Amino acid sequence: MGYGKQYFSQKMALALSDLNPISVKEERFARKPDAELARILADYYFARNELKTAYDYLKKAKNLAQKPDMELDRQIFRLVYSGYRSDQFPLDSVKAAADHLMAGLKDEKSRAQILFNMSRLLAKSPDDRELLSYLTKLTQMIDRTPDLLRERSKKEVELLHCLYVEKDAKKAVEKKKAAMPPGWQENPDQLNSFAWWCFENKINLDEAAALAKKALELADDPLDKANILDTLAEILSLQGKHQEAIKAEEKAIELNPKDKLFKRNLEKFRQRAGVI
Questions:
Q1: What's the pTM?
Q2: According to the model, what pLDDT value does residue 227 have?
Q3: Whole-angstrom Cα distance, residue 194 to residue 117?
């Protein structure tokens, strides 16, 4: 889910408004709960990927708010959305947050963006009827008003329709390749992006693995290599090659030992392989 410049500016201003250590902020919140401070604490834990703690603070902020706050509802949606994609929140919590947010949105562009984000979750839950209904509603809205989404997003909607309505994976792969920027097959970032798309949608895995390996050869930056190795590991695990996935993820951690996601993924692959 993308975030705009205004969103980051607001978050930066909020963070800079109180430079005290997080422990001091938490002690102050415990003594005197405050909606704004709850949001600052939520942002801190969101950035650390401690999403359940962040969610608790956002719910406290909502309870402490003097009036309905649409931006707070957006934050809750962003959090549970990210949490579902990383297996920290159930899908029902995302649907509830999306429906609540859309009920308060007046402009169609904002509603279309929420429907777009929900439709993208079909990659994780392809048979969910409610997610399919979000995609159907979005497609109908775009047919009526084509400029509701950017061209890039509309192309992604076409791919989602191919995959989950038409159920034509071959057509979707062809469309995805056609939509990639010129020179993408020699660009490690773009190769990794394509391989990740295949992984997310559980299609074209042999080519995805081959292209991830090519991206690894082309990449120079160690952190880029780590991200590509993580993509490759996910693909290999999905193919049932759990030992190879473990080795790839271990290399990713060697290159970027601070990344907590890589460590969680390594544990996941070891569990699948029956190592732990």
A1: 0.81
A2: 98
A3: 19
Burial 38-73 (b: 16+ CB within 10 A, else e): bbbbbbbbbeeeebeebbebbebbbeeeeeebeebb
238: its two tokens: 């999905």
- Greatest distance between any 2 Cα atoms in the chain: 59
Provide the token pair at 28: 């102050």
pLDDT for position 1: 55
* Continuous H helices in the chain: 5-16, 22-31, 35-47, 51-64, 70-85, 91-104, 108-120, 129-144, 151-164, 169-179, 188-201, 205-218, 222-238, 242-255, 260-273
The position carrying tokens 């957006």 is 74
Nearest-angstrom CA–CA distance, 116 and 102: 12
Which pLDDT belongs to residue 96? Answer: 97
Half-sphere exposure for 151 (CA within 13 Å, toward CB): 2
The Cα–Cα gap between 118 and 116 comes to 5
Cβ–Cβ < 8 Å for 215, 228: yes
Q: Count other Cβ atoms within 10 Å, centred on residue 175.
A: 17
Sign of CA dihedral 15, 17, 23, 25: negative
What does the buried/exposed string (b/e) look like for 151-165 if buried means 16 or more CB atoms within 10 Å of the residue's CB?
A: eebbebbbbbbbbbe
- Determine the Cα–Cα distance for residues 262 and 180; give it in Å rounded to an integer: 27
Question: pLDDT at position 262, please?
Answer: 95
User: Splitting the chain (276 residues) into consecutive groups of 10 residues, what average pLDDT does each group show?
Assistant: 48 57 93 95 92 96 91 96 93 97 94 97 95 97 95 95 96 96 97 97 97 98 98 98 98 96 95 84
On whether the CB atoms of residues 88 and 115 are closer than 8 A, the answer is no
